[in-house]
Amino acid sequence: MNPIIRAEIITIGDEILFGQITDTNTQWIGAELTNIGIRPVRKTSVGDLQEDIISALTEASQRADVIIVTGGLGPTKDDITKHTFCKYFGSELKINEDALALVTEFFAKRGREMTELNIQQAALPTNCTYIPNLWGTAPGMWFEKDKVIYVSLPGVPYEMKSLMEHAILPRLKDRFVANIIQHKIIRTIGIGESFLAETIEDWENALPTHIKLAYLPHFGQVKLRLTATGNNQEILDSELKHQVDKLLPLIQDFVFGYDADELESVIGRLLIERDATIGAAESCTGGFVASQLTNIPGSSRYFEGSVVSYSNTIKMNVLGVSKQTLEDFGAVSEQTAREMAEGARKVLNTTYAISTTGIAGPDGGTPEKPVGTVWIACATPTETVTQLLTLRSIRKVNIELTSSYVLNLLRKTILKTAAEKI
């Protein structure tokens, strides 16, 4: 097996630490490095202080072969990355003529006058390799010291991605003979992480040492990520398939997809295969279920619409929920969820319809129906299936969990209906 090539990603900027922007760069860079066999071992975010950046670089150099730095390359005083690299590498800034020509061309094409600050964008540490940025004015820089490669990139995501794709990743591939890092993701729903771990414990303990398992829970779902490392793609693919084949009999009832599958995309395929349609009646989820279903391109082939029946008046006047049902059982009840789903199916003229009604929180609960009490339903041409959920006290979490559970109820109902026809 080839030696493991390790990478660390450092993002620079107070705006990241203050929570004013979301760091999407690290996620993207990590995935791309993995694709060429370089293993990210740590990510670090630091503010706009030179001593903190130098400290992060020094620490990273002790554990990584490649250090990718993003941010802090603009023309303003708070962008200090180039000055910091000069201090770290014992260098000085000097106008790079190639960089200056590119910056000049950039402004000329846009009919804009260059300022002295713009010109200083072309000032680079004298001991770096200049990486042209064809999509902006902040240059890329490549350094090498004590067998460690340092790459500095702009923080603007589309500029960073372009530099990585066209310059940095190809250079790293040429430099290192790295192992292949292959992932396989099994997506489950309806089983908690701890119960899942207990169910597959023997299988997990028997995994070969070069295949690792990670549990990734998210709103009622748990992704099982298998990561295999080696130097033969065909063998790794075969080994991962073998392990999945051994795993499935243990958790088949909870598996809904693999790799990039999302619950709503799996449902879309099931509906298209059966030439079926779906509609929704939403109360506590307020349209979130419809948003999930319509996130999928081509969903107009099977999604007819949603009635957001937040008030009892809409439940009665649009969906046909009985006034007596609401008086006897309340809006949050199995009976109301059933009538909402059946009403939506009639109003929207669909094969299936799903409904949600509950107390999302943080208030509105009672001793009999505390916050997090939710009823969901799925109506078919022949029956209506209901389910009680007992969720949490956090509104956003309850909305997303309810969406996941009602979509899974739909998925299972579609599969059950299909099985009954066989």
Automatic annotation (TrEMBL):
InterPro entries: CinA, CinA-like_C, CinA_C, CinA_KH, Competence-induced_CinA, MoaB/Mog-like_dom_sf, MoaB/Mog_dom. Residues 8-175 form the MoaB/Mog domain. CDD domains: cinA (cd00885). Pfam families: CinA, CinA_KH, MoCF_biosynth. This is CinA-like protein. It comes from Dyadobacter koreensis. Coiled coil: none annotated. Belongs to the CinA family. The lineage of its organism: Bacteria, Pseudomonadati, Bacteroidota, Cytophagia, Cytophagales.
